[in-house]
Amino acid sequence: MKLNNWTQAPGLVRRRVAAGATAAAMGVTAVLGSGLMTAAHAADSVAPTGIVLGVGATESQRAVSWYSSAGTTQAVEVAPTSHLVNGQFPADAVTFPATVAANTVNGGYNGHATIDGLQENIAYSYRVGAEGGWSPTYSFKTQDFEGDFDFLFFGDPQIGSSGNVAMDGAGWSDTLNVALAANPNAELLVSGGDQVETANTETQWNAFLAPDKLRQYPWAATIGNHDVGGKAYEQHFWTPNTDRSAPFYNGSPSTRSGGDYWYIYKDVLFIDINSNAYANGADEAHVGYITDVVKAHGADAKYTVLVYHHSIYSPADHANDTDNQKRRQDFPTAFSKLGVDLVLQGHDHSYSRSYAIKNGQKAHPDEQPGATQVAEGPGGVIYVTANSASGSKYYDLTAPDPTQDPNYGPDPLNPNSHWANSVENQEHVRTYVKVEVLKNKLVVENIRSGTCDAPNAAVELGKVSWCGPNSGASAAQPVGSTVDKVVIHPYRGNGYDITADASTPASAESGWLQQTTEGGAGTLTLTALS
């Protein structure tokens, strides 16, 4: 690993970065630019605020974004946590220069920098700013850069949507605390969009960014409809490989904050699109972007996961919105042809998990509602919609209504649900989604992070009239209990990549899985479907 040596220039306060053995021990590579803040400005600086850790292009990168009252040169300083002495950074800490720009929202500045060259299984500490104006020190830990991993998916915190920012923030913070206490080795926090209620209201952003967990685990941002209409979203979040080309946004500047972006983390190619723009060819442009990324990088990963805000198989208030009806026409066939494994969505403040969907139709007519193991089959895609992670707003499930959309009627196997969905759930309690990425399967689990008790703003403020399973007829289940869990077996060209063991009790029957044993206990098979 190579590190550049810094040289002192007149009027600049810089750290000299050591090379050789010390650099190797650091486990980071700095891309050096112009120096840190000048000494004349250092005393006037104020510590940055709104700091958030983000994903990089690979598992060896992290992005850091923040707000600042000063437009002077700033940076991120990084060192292995074990190198800090009494909380002080060592002389050989690595500094990554930031891009600092005028902030169009509050008149200050926003900055971001990419930490590069991270090594696996190391705890790192970092701070942002410059001499005389450093932030507090935060830490994160890398894990193995290959193999299995877990990530957590969060739907619509939408801080401020209950009318009480403090209550919404409390619910959001509690969900993060609960989720990461239960899953401390989760490696990514993935957003379903709508971080806040109003795009440029910084009191809402401050409440969203308040939890220190967002400085310890990388947040993979997604832009929702409540995040557009201003530039606060992209000023708070830097994302890798981002494209904001005009065709994606049908010429509307109001929807252009954010952008389509991608990154690879271990065995997963993540592609995140701005679904706020959909008309005048924008959906086709998004599909073109996804197609280009899959063609260029799909072979570098085992799974492809798409993330965007608007749930096309929404079970609640947005089920028959005109824009969702259009996306249901524009997206599914393309996703099936591109070999997408999993689609993660928000927007509808309720939970749903689809059947395996191929080309906009149920792939296997006999797949049963709530099946705990599913073989996707060629072209099969599972779509998941996340419920509210903060409790600020919930949407009740709707009955399938073919008069609103003749192509989105009831499920013949479960007429109370829409035909696309294996599971639909609303209990008016906070939840999050855990995704386990394993060698030959994905495990998706929707988990309760709250009960009917506070913090649960929509319940506390009377925004909903009941709480608990079965429309409130049953008592709320405990924090950490499972709403839904499914094991997904993706199709891989000539069959399923399955390791036959007692943890995979399945064989393929019309595309959905049933437990079978052949030749005695523990001998298990999965037959590929054509």
TrEMBL record:
Residues 1-42 form the signal peptide. It comes from the Bacteria. The keyword Signal applies. Residues 48-142 form the Purple acid phosphatase N-terminal domain. GO terms for molecular function: acid phosphatase activity; metal ion binding. PROSITE patterns: TAT. Residues 151-351 form the Calcineurin-like phosphoesterase domain. Keywords: Signal. This is Calcineurin-like phosphoesterase. It comes from Micromonospora inositola.
